[in-house]
Fold this sequence. Notes:
The chain has 302 residues and is an alpha/beta fold.
Amino acid sequence: MFVRYCILISQPSLSLLFPAATNPLCALLFHSTGPKYPPVKFLSEKDRKRILITGGAGFVGSHLADKLMMDGYEVTVVDNFFTGRRRNVDHWLGHGNFELINHDVVEPLFIEVDQIYHLASPASPPNYMYNPIKTLKTNTIGTLNMLGLAKRVGARLLFASTSEVYGGIPEQHPQPESYWGNVNPIGPRACYDEGKRVAETMCYAYQKQEGVDVRVARIFNTFGPRMHMDDGRVVSNFILQALQGQPLTVRTLGDGNCLRFRDGRMLLHGGGVRGGLQFSAERLNSSLQWERTSIDGNTLTA
Length: 302
Ligand SMILES: NC(=O)c1ccc[n+]([C@@H]2O[C@H](COP(=O)([O-])OP(=O)(O)OC[C@H]3O[C@@H](n4cnc5c(N)ncnc54)[C@H](O)[C@@H]3O)[C@@H](O)[C@H]2O)c1
């Protein structure tokens, strides 16, 4: 069973609990008084799972690290800092439950853990198209390495997949899980889309053949704090353009009636729009409807 996510990462309570994470003045005080961390729940050794997050210095992964740390788990973040930033997790550095490892998942990793959240992969088109071969290696060899690790240590693995497995122009809206997608295997996005698709295949092959406990989360467009300003995806582009007082650029991919956002996470109303189109900021409310996602209680981040 796939779990579907479309996440609006609201500013976590972290900035309230821990202003040094965002405020340089507080950061100064923080350094003068020694490290302080957000409150972390106490778990007995038996319940304190050792959790690995690959790509944990990235946008989604760092929020996940915050959540798991505050829940009292032992968290190891592995990241090669291609798109991630040390500052996304540096508020945990030195904490007894936290470890940050500079490592590329394309290389094998030997570590003892109970759970693996495998998020390592560039996620925005400019980033994953920058080096398509590396994107493929990360999603294929990197995922094989993590599945091998999960098998060796008996860990459960969650793989962060994507709505892009349905393709840039899916033929069905919304996409049911029975829909297998419409991906161009040699298009510019193929390194990511096909990389994620074969990674899903690997997960279920390891489950069937080796009995590894796997989960696959097909994440839809997510946005929130710690996202790069120049991320290149549509929501951050809208926010940036709105902040700069510029018209919002909407590019349609198919018949003009919809973008690839499913289930009304973002619905583009008023079909018949073809090709590139610019909606001015004033027309935003009548043109776009935003909805908060309900994810049946399954959320990656708080
Ligand atoms: N954000 C979204 O809207 C979205 C949508 C669908 C799927 N996803 C998936 O969620 C995951 C996280 O996405 P994100 O938005 O946080 O992206 P991000 O770019 O902020 O984070 C990805 C992290 O992976 C790291 N990384 C990349 N290649 C690596 C490698 N070879 N070895 C180790 N670390 C590596 C990066 O440095 C970065 O820290 C990705 O797998 C992405 O495909 C995200």
